[in-house]
Write a structure and sequence with these properties.
By secondary structure, the protein is α+β, with helices and mostly antiparallel strands. The protein is 32% helix and 10% strand. The structure holds zinc ion.
């Protein structure tokens, strides 16, 4: 997929269009979990509380968006919760 060249392209002005573009670029065929790499059990979340663009991985039970990196923050939070179990 080519990067839109015109600055008038909605990708540069509309948040939904930008997210959709990033999703198509990052996941041209299948959405996969950036945290564990799973292609299965991926479901789209939504609703007003979450906002658009959130996905849920049923394999690692984490939420992510197209902007999620292979997340150290998720690993760190898992590590921390392992060190200090919640009451
Ligand atoms: Zn996952």
């Amino acid at each position: 997929m080519q990067t839109p060249e015109l600055l008038s392209d909605p990708v540069y002005h509309d948040e939904d269009a930008a997210r959709s573009y990033l999703e198509r670029t990052r996941w041209p065929e299948y959405v996969h979990c950036p945290l564990c790499g799973s292609l299965e059990k991926i479901s789209q979340l939504g609703g007003e509380s979450m906002g658009p663009g959130w996905w849920f991985c049923g394999s690692c039970k984490e939420k992510f968006t197209v902007r999620s990196a292979r997340s150290w923050s998720a690993r760190i939070s898992r590590f921390i919760s392992g060190c200090w179990p919640s009451a």
